[in-house]
Amino acid sequence: MNASQGLRVVVTGATGNVGTSVVRALSDDPAVGSVLGLARRLPGHKPLPGVAWDTVDLSRPDSTRTLDTLLAGADAVIHLAWRFQPTHRPVVTWRSNVEGSLRVFDAVRRAGVPALIHASSVGAYSPGPKWEPGVDEQWPTHGWPDAAYCREKAYLERVLDTFELRHPQVRVVRMRPGFLFKEGAASEQRRIFGGRYLPGVLLRPDLLPFVPDLEGLRFQVLYSDDAADAYRLAVLRDVRGPFNLAADTVTDARALGELLDSRVVRAPSPLVRGALATAWRMRVVPASPHLFDAVLRLPVMDCGRAREELGWRPVRSASDALSSFLRGVAGGEGEATAPLAGNRWA
Predict the structure, then answer these.
(1) Which of 81, 25, 67, 31 is nearest to 48 (CA)?
(2) 44: Cα separation from own chain's centroid
């Protein structure tokens, strides 16, 4: 790095939920001289200071040569690129998420990039306790094998175990956040989990008469901009290893009921899962019942290491993150990128 020019950071998946927040956070930091955002499709918004863009499709084998060129001279690579769909065709997501990540890791090695910051997830964790203080970063990361998302995140954890042993000169950081929300990503998330034909206007709190209280329904969320700040700090600080990231409180049915001003009604998980499985098989909704199973088994995380070693604190509460999502869904909010495009109806 040329100290007068600042750090050069490359971000994959830069047009997505977390990517747009990460790019803005890096652009605002005077220690970062330039940011290169990579995505399959270029964004439509006005460029940020110090930010350039390029296209790459990580699922394609011929992306390797492109990555070698794009990563040359980088001080850090933040790897966020991830494909959630199609859930009925796991080979497609495997090629993009797993094989694409392997191409990024290999390119980091070949280009001699000093730091690799990888977006793992709470979904990489094996089933665990649902109550505070939660599990630390040493909890097993074998995922829930039936869910493609968890299976892929867990597989990449094993890949990085080997990568770190073989290439100790690369500073590897693994971020394991809870569910990430912000207003500008709400339309995309509605499409990912509810399908493009579920109108956002139907997800108003006053139209949701009750919240099902399911056994195991305790999970952690985080505002996307707060996650982005953790990635920024990981670029700047000499840290290694995994970091759990989540807002300070755990979300359960009671918290959702208060947020939505709805009654909480105890419901049998098998009944809800059966309805979801039928809707998924009929391709009415894209969210698979396997992911539902995983969510009910995810452990609660202890985020003490991020506070102590990164100096990271979430600014917004879990309620803030969920409220922003609900506002964004109802209003059809989005950003000027292909993944995040806003729409209330499709």
Answers:
(1) 25
(2) 22
DSSP letter at 306 equals: I
Tell me: pLDDT of 219 over 90. yes
Helix (H) and strand (E) counts for the chain? 12, 13
CA separation for the pair 315, 229 (Å, rounded): 10
Inform me whether the pLDDT recorded for 333 exceeds 50. yes
* CA distances from residue 308 to 201, 224, 303 in whole angstroms, order as listed: 41, 20, 9
Q: Give the integer Cα–Cα distance in Å for 337 and 339.
A: 6
Integer Cα distance of 197 and 279 in angstroms: 13
User: Residue 194: pLDDT band by 50, 70, 90 thresholds?
Assistant: confident
Residue 65: both structure tokens together: 């040569």
DSSP state of 232: H
Structure-block tokens of residue 119 = 């977006």
* Domain residue ranges of the chain, discontinuous segments joined by +: 7-183+220-246+299-315
pLDDT band of 205, cuts 50, 70, 90: low
Within 8 A by CB and 6+ apart from 202, the residues are none
Kindly tell me if the per-residue pLDDT of 116 is higher than 90. Answer: yes
Q: 340 pairs with which residues across the strands?
A: none
CA 3 remoteness from chain centre: 31
Residue whose pair of structure tokens reads 């993944």 in the numeric block: 339
State the number of CA atoms in the 13 A half-sphere of 83 facing the CB. Answer: 22
pLDDT the model gives residue 44: 84
User: Which CATH code fits 7-183+220-246+299-315?
Assistant: 3.40.50.720
Confidence of residue 2 (pLDDT cuts 50, 70, 90): very low
